[in-house]
Amino acid sequence: MSRTRNATLTRVSGLIVATGFCLLYLAAPAAADQRISWTAMRNVALNGDVLQKNAGCQGCEDAGAISQQMLSGDGSVQFSPGETNTFWYAGLTRRTDAAQHADMDFAFRFNGAGRADVVENGTYKGGDTSYAPGDQFRIAIVAGRVQYLKNGAVVYESQQQPRVPLAFALSLGTPGATVRNARMEQGTFNTSSYGTSAPYSDEGYGPTFVVPATRQWTDTGIDVRAGDTITFDAYGTVRLSADPNDVADPLGSHQGRRAADAPLHNSPAGALVARIGTATILVGDHRTIARYPFSGRLYLGVNDDYLNDNSGQYTVAVTVEPYRR
After folding, report:
1. Which of 11, 37, 71, 238 lies at a C-alpha separation of 20 to 30 Å from 186?
2. Torsion angles phi and psi, residue 103, rounded to 5
């Protein structure tokens, strides 16, 4: 069996042969998950994975950017809002120079009061939903149909057929508005398996997991064996309290704070952590642990001590290379 590793996500498919039985793992073909490379940038600044409107007027569609990458068939774009009180659009467009919301064939509109909905070529379609900073929004072309998702759940399916190629565009109305962690995934995107795991195999491991900030531990279903090499790749943002500025990514709190009763109280609050057996380890956005010395079930979590006021999630790809004795 072959394993394909693309950017931050890894997937496996094919025939898995395990001791005593044969298991066919049916999965979508491997897809290329890429950070968005922006062009046609107007009145915006890019800082890492955060694009922000830094000039222009309040409520004017005079700031934005368009992806250099384009979807030519099935695939998706995903991104996270940085706050709830800003007005902007994010969607797929056939334009490559500049795009306002009327130029977007398929778009989410963020209304500036913690609410989002679906707009297509300037016309409201539905899909009303609330959101918080760090929630993951996705527009996916699946078998020639366009679906709109929030945190893996479909909120609306378009009645229009997509005309490709399509770029990803942002049109920002509120100064200071931020869009985070924009990605494009080329290839089949299977919404029914989003955030789920796949079987463990002696040929390696490469599923993707959604790790919500509201749950202490997410069970991956992976039983690590002593001597295995484990690689983690993660992205996303979460909010750690009702404070809209209390945001973290897999490396931890953007404010540098700690959480006294978190699983790792001496590590940054909000950081991605893992538990294998009884041991808890800091993961961050990328880490490879060669020949892990202990065996145990692998759990993933957010390093925080109070989860009830959290929101958002991390997306984590895990690869396990079995120890060859």
Report:
1. 238
2. -90, -5
Beta-carbon contacts of residue 184 (< 8 Å; ≥ 6 apart)? 33, 34, 36, 67, 69, 71, 75, 76, 77, 168
Alpha helices in the chain (DSSP H): none
Q: Kindly report which listed range (23-27, 132-136, 167-171, 226-230) carries the lowest average pLDDT score.
A: 23-27
pLDDT single digits (tens) 285-299: 999 999 899 899 999
Q: Rounded CA gap, 183 and 9, in Å?
A: 11
Reply yes or no on domain 3-28+193-321 having CATH 2.60.120.430. Answer: yes
42, containing H or E segment: strand 38-42
Coil, strand, or helix at residue 142?
strand
32-189 belongs to which homologous superfamily?
A: Exo-inulinase; domain 1 (2.60.120.560)
Using the Cα atoms of residue 139, residue 189, residue 97 and residue 136 in order, give the sign of their dihedral: positive
pTM: 0.54
Q: Is 114 exposed, middle or buried (0-12, 13-18, 19+ CB in 10 A)?
A: middle
Q: For the chain, where do the domains classified as CATH 2.60.120.560 start and end?
A: 32-189
